[in-house]
Structures are given as structure tokens and as C-alpha cells.
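Before our next group meeting I need something from you. Please put the record directly below this note.
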Amino acid sequence: MAHIPADERREQFISAAVAVIAEVGVEGASTRRIAEAAKAPLAALHYCFRNKERLLLDVFDRILESHRADTASIDGRGQSVADVAVDLLSRTLEWGLRNPDEARAEFDLALWAARQETGLGVQMYASFIDMWTAALRQADPRLKDAELDAAVRLVIALADGLGLQMLSHQDAAQTRRNTTEAAVMLAAHLRARYGDA
């Protein structure tokens, strides 16, 4: 068997973990099952990751970076808060339609993290809150932190609800119709609250 550099092997394990979590959830994703999915020795997995939690955190980091890359081109300058929020919501659901395994793994990881006593669930959500707050702040730098936080949490709540429906129904057309309807309501609410700023 040819030697595979550790960084490349780590990426293989992360990809395999996404697929396994999407199929059987975090609880069913044993390190043995992940190593088998990666077609790699279990010992190599334990060499690359000190424990299963470290692997799961790296899976979350990859998913977060994928979201970040997907929304990086949003430039809120000159747009209203409502327009940027709708763009974030729409891109998030489109990301889920393009990446169903990652979306399924993301939800399962969030539930797993919320059950940890370390505050990991809060930390995971904070990553999205920070990323999306930066995008909305570009639209209106005058908004107070509490106003931005409320707007971002509303977008996340809609994305989570629509995302669960998307994963349950597996109907892209319905997901897009639901997202369009939610976007209309979100925009109306944010325009009423913050104007066209």
C-alpha cells in the first residue's frame, strides 16, 4: 500500500465522516466505520485525530468553511439589511440542495454538540452568527449589536427550519418555493423594522 501524506489522509477521513454521519448520524459514526468508508486502516485515523471529537470538530470546520466560501461574495455595501438577509437565507438553502450530505451532517453535528456539557453547541452557532453578522453590518454599520443579533438569529431560525424540511422532503422545487415565501416575509419584517438601510 502506497504511503499517503497525513494531510491528505486527514481530508479523506473528514470526507468519509461526512458521508457516514449523513447516513447513520453522529452516534452511529464509529471511528471503525469512518475508517472503513475512507478505505484506510483504523490506526491511521487514530494517528490523524486524537479522538472522535477532534474528527467531528474538523468535520464541522469543513462545513463552516464551505458555507463561508459560499457567502464570501456577498457585499452588503449599498444593499439593504433585508436584501443581504434574503441573500444569506437563499444561498444557505441552495448550498444545502447542492450538498445534501454536508447539510444532513451539519444538523446531526449541531444536535450532538448541543448535548455536550462543554458549550460546544453555543460555540458552533456563534460561528454562523459571527459570519452572518459581518455581512449584515456592511449593509448598515449604524445598526446596534442587539439589532444585528436579532436579525441574524431570525435568518438562522428560518434557515434551520427550511433546512430540516428540505432534508425531510427531499424536494428541491418545494424547498425553493418555501425559501421564496420565507424570503418575502423576512424582507417585509426587516424593512418594517430597519427601513431600506
The two ends are 60 Å apart (CA to CA).
